[in-house]
Amino acid sequence: MRHITRVEQVPVPGWVYHWPRCECGWTGDIVRTPVLAELQITEHHDDQFEQPSLFD
Ligand SMILES: [Zn+2]
Question: How far is the CA of 37 from the centre of ligand 1 (A)?
């Protein structure tokens, strides 16, 4: 399973929300900033790829 993520912009009056999604079917919470969206993507990938040697 490949995890190709993207952050969709969700315009609302006066603001744009950010919605992280992944091609595996996962969707995150709609949040106010792209940083929060990226954080969710990072956590999603951490859940999917357990690589204890990642930080050697
Ligand atoms: Zn995924």
Answer: 14
Q: How far is the CA of 14 from the centre of ligand 1 (A)?
A: 30
12 CA to middle of ligand 1, Å?
Answer: 26
Predicted confidence (pLDDT) per residue in 36-54, tens digit: 999 999 999 887 766 555 5
Report the b/e string of 19-54 with b at 16+ CB within 10 A.
Answer: bbbbeeebebeebeeeebbbebbeebeeeeeeeeee
Ligand 1 mean position, distance from CA 29 (Å): 14
Mind listing the pLDDT tens digit for each residue in 11-24? 999 999 999 999 99
